[in-house]
Amino acid sequence: MFRLGLGGFSAMSLSQLLQARAVAAKSSRGRKKTALILVWLPGGHSHLETYDPKPSALSDYRGPFSSIETAAPGMQLSELLPHHARVADKFTLLRSIVHTGFCHQQGTHQLLTGFAERVLRRKPLYPDLFSVTHRLRYDKSRQLPNYVGVAPVNYAGPSYLGNAYEVFAVSGDPNQDSFSVPNIGSVTQSAATNLRRRIDLRQQLDHLKAKADFLGRMDALDAFEQQAFNVLTSTQATKAFDIRQEDAATRERYGRNRWGQQLLLARRLVESGVDLVTAQFSGALCGGVGNWDDHAVNANCFEAIKYRLQFMDKAVAALIEDIYDRGLDQDVMVVVTGEFGRTPKINSKKSTGKRIGSAPVGTMQPGRDHWPRATSILFAGGGIETGQVVGRTDVRGEDAIERIVGRGDFVATLYKHLGVDFENASFPDHSGRPVPVMLSDGKPIRELSRV
Questions:
Q1: Sign of torsion, CA 272 278 279 283?
Q2: Segments forming the whole domain that contains residue 327
Q3: What is the pLDDT of residues 32-72, one digit of tens each?
């Protein structure tokens, strides 16, 4: 009866999601009001053309672009990132993370779970750090989704935690005038009244729970229904997602394109109380195959990189500036990365001529392939010391040679910021066996911990 009562209102899945989030509530230890924005570069960004340029390398390694000085003394960046250079004193670069995931699925799973995944899987075998934190941060009174993807990261997921801990996905383009988020703020007063009546009716049927196994948790259902009701009818949620409330100058500063407005929306969400936000930079703005996978067969990698970085540079710099200017830098951490770097040695393949940045058909064009032996990651906010460069790669950018850190260290750093007791927390898998949220011996990176 409950399923029939709410199914027509399209609220059942949200109610189920909120119900399952509370299962591990008692495992959450000392939650801090911290938030994380992950800017994900799917396919893997070239560290040499972004955060770890190699001006002294031979031309078949360094590529055609120069390096530039930045606002952080001693830190150089690619000339394609002038906006980053201007705000470099507000972020820190990690240039020495290493893992063993040579394909996109493996690299994503290793970086976002901490587990040494070597099999190609569409979804992770173990829950990613967002789903784990999402499960631990249950609050029945909140009026916003706890974990939002604008857009969600490829290959991420909750694994055995269940679909209740999936991301609240925003698939539209925030730069479009027609942008809206389905079900948020779309509930009319009359519909809200009807929903409340249906909830009240369900509560009157509690005496049936002993006779129906599928209602075995009805005593806990009230709180989940209330939160579902809060989210669906909340003016707070409506305002948080209404990017049109931003003035024209601010929207332009981020860039009037999909990526820029994704990050502006991300800032609005964490400022409104959302804890976890992912923003994947994919699609037409990549200039190649819709991602950062710069194989020579896809496009002239340098033309594609030059095209996409104009949008990424402006958007990320604006987000970092806002995090500090609006007093969010102690609570909100911004992380920019993809699943791995790219091969320092440039290779060439014949062009198909089909994409932005492609040479004429049959022309040999340059590319860079997958490279998990050296990845550069940007960190801002989170109360960390900024203007630093942590770790170093060799002169060609092939291998990390100083302050080498692994996937477990990266995940542990983010868990520490989010207040997750990653050394002790565990959840039952599909067989009921308790599995720690991390099996590696990862430790938070001290240079990226709160000062």
A1: negative
A2: 32-179+243-448
A3: 589 999 999 999 999 999 999 999 999 999 999 999 999 99
